[in-house]
């Protein structure tokens, strides 16, 4: 099957469906875990700075592996990559479900991450190659609807499971579904790929692993070890030096593992910057809100999940709408309006009290999710639209890598800010209460944690302002090499676009 056949017959929706179900399961697993973090902390007797590794460790593996996906997508067929990715994810799910100590649970999560790291760029590349630019917004909107259904279902389902069963049931629930999706991939994906003469540059792989891994590990360790720890700043420095060396090396290779030439295209560079900054701000709601409602307010896991449900539903339902709006009006208006909403709502979250009403939290979170839904997919799609077809694997790999890096940095930064502010607030409250401090220990703990969460949300709103400013520079992008021509060729460029569907 060649690209001519693909263009004539149109996208293979059955193949896309299998890939989307796989991505949905991976995304669902992430949203299931957010509500479970307080229960895991209690059961395994670990601190917030430790349990965050279930999130940042996942991102760490993604950040290390995703840069290699541009090479993998060009070299191997969709079938091989999907079965490998889903197999790794399923194995990790089984291990995590059996975990009785934190290191084993973290190992399972990292195996899941290694599968997810391949799956998401693979699906994005298939979507880009399958649809022309003028229909891509609507297609990405449907893709967003399916993936956003995961956060709509995840928190509520997670809350119900945790109230009635052990948190390990979250993984036991996903396991049979993952096995079925794996089998669907084995029997339904039939694409073949001609042998491509490409070799993975091992030096580049090592440099990117140490570079992205060092930066992610350093920022992730800051929450527990502090920014002044040599363990933290040494790994960040080593990571930064390795990353710079990696980038310089890619510019000199004839076939780079990750082509940084994509940043010559201004709309891609701008969209990449906006989504990175927004990712850092976005994780505040995903991480801090479940801690607030369960630890400070004492709301049950199920009700905490219900609290997140309307916002996730808004995000899911808006995805196809924003996709169609993007096709008609472009990304600038959507991004500016959406980011303005994100800035205001995130700032309002920094004013939480010990008795903020449940309905207020639901409405505020829903409006915030509305804003995020207007930004993420349109901005990313607009940036990718400017790239030549041969650059799609590099663009999707770069976006996914930087999303993981920025998400991990944002998570580590916000947890550190929350922890430091909570500690300083607790110290001042102890001094304020004086002799009564011992009797009011519980009150001091709640008030100091609330101060930490509010301050982290405030910093998050300032970060979102940066994205808002950048959004004013967005212009509608068109492919740099004109319309994609699906025709067989013997030159390098025809081999770079993978035969996907």
TrEMBL record:
**PANTHER family, A to Z:** MAJOR FACILITATOR SUPERFAMILY MULTIDRUG TRANSPORTER MFSC
The taxonomic lineage of its organism, from the top, reads:
Bacteria, Bacillati, Bacillota, Bacilli, Bacillales
One GO cellular-component annotation of the UniProt record comes to: plasma membrane
Q: Enumerate the UniProt keywords alphabetically.
A: Cell membrane, Membrane, Transmembrane, Transmembrane helix, Transport
Where do the TM regions start and end? 12-33, 53-73, 85-105, 111-131, 138-157, 169-188, 200-219, 231-248, 268-292, 304-321, 333-352, 358-380, 455-474
Fetch the CDD domains from UniProt: MFS_LmrB_MDR_like
Location relative to the cell: Cell membrane
Membrane-topology annotation of the record: Multi-pass membrane protein
Supply the source organism for this entry. Aquibacillus salsiterrae
Q: Where is the Major facilitator superfamily (MFS) profile domain?
A: 15-479
UniProt keyword annotation of Transmembrane helix present = yes
Q: Which InterPro entries match?
A: EmrB-like, MFS, MFS_dom, MFS_trans_sf
Q: Sorted alphabetically, which Pfam families does this protein's record hold?
A: MFS_1
| Protein's name in the database | DHA2 family efflux MFS transporter permease subunit
The answer to whether keyword RNA-binding applies is no
Family the entry assigns: Belongs to the major facilitator superfamily. EmrB family.
Molecular function GO labels: transmembrane transporter activity
């Amino acid at each position: 099957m060649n690209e001519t056949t693909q263009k004539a017959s149109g996208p293979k929706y059955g193949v896309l469906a299998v890939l989307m179900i796989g991505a949905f399961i991976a995304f669902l697993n992430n949203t299931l875990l957010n509500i479970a973090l307080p229960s895991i902390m209690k059961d395994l007797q670990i601190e917030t700075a430790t349990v965050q590794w279930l999130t940042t460790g996942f991102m760490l593996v993604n950040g290390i592996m995703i840069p290699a996906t541009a090479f993998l997508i060009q070299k191997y067929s969709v079938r091989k990559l999907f079965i490998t990715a889903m197999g790794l994810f399923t194995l990790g799910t089984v291990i995590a479900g059996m975990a009785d100590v934190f290191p084993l649970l973290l190992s399972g999560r990292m195996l899941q991450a290694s599968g997810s790291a391949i799956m998401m760029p693979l699906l994005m590349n298939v979507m880009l190659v399958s649809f022309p630019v003028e229909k891509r917004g609507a297609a990405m909107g449907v893709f967003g609807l399916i993936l956003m259904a995961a956060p709509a279902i995840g928190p509520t389902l997670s809350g119900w499971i945790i109230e009635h069963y052990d948190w390990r049931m979250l993984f036991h629930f996903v396991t049979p579904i993952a096995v079925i999706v794996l089998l669907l991939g084995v029997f339904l994906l039939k694409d073949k790929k001609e042998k491509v003469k490409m070799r993975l540059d091992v030096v580049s792989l090592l440099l990117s692993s140490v570079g992205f891994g060092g930066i992610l590990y350093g920022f992730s360790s800051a929450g527990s070890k502090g920014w002044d720890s040599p363990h933290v700043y040494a790994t960040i420095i080593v990571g930064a030096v390795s990353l710079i060396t990696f980038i310089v090396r890619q510019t000199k290779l004839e076939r780079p593992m990750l082509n940084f030439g994509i940043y010559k295209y201004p709309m891609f560079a701008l969209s990449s910057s906006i989504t990175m900054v927004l990712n850092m701000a976005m994780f505040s709601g995903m991480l801090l809100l479940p801690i607030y409602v369960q630890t400070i307010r004492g709301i049950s896991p199920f009700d905490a999940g219900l609290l997140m449900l309307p916002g996730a539903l808004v995000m899911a339902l808006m995805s196809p709408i924003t996709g169609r709006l993007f096709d008609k009006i472009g990304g600038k208006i959507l991004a500016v309006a959406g980011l303005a909403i994100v800035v205001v709502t995130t700032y309002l979250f920094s004013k939480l009290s010990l008795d903020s009403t449940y309905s207020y939290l639901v409405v505020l979170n829903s409006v915030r999710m509305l804003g995020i839904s207007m930004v993420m997919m349109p901005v990313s799609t607009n940036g990718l639209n400017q790239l030549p077809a041969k650059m799609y694997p590099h663009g999707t790999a770069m976006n996914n890598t930087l999303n993981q890096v920025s998400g991990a940095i944002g998570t580590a930064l916000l947890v550190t800010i929350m922890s430091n502010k909570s500690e300083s607030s607790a110290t001042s409250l102890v001094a304020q209460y004086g002799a009564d401090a011992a009797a009011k220990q519980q009150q001091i703990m709640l008030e100091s944690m609330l101060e930490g969460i509010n301050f982290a949300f405030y910093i998050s709103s300032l970060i979102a302002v940066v994205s808002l400013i950048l959004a004013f520079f967005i212009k509608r992008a068109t492919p740099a090499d004109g319309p994609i021509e699906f025709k067989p060729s013997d030159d390098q460029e025809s081999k770079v676009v993978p035969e996907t569907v």
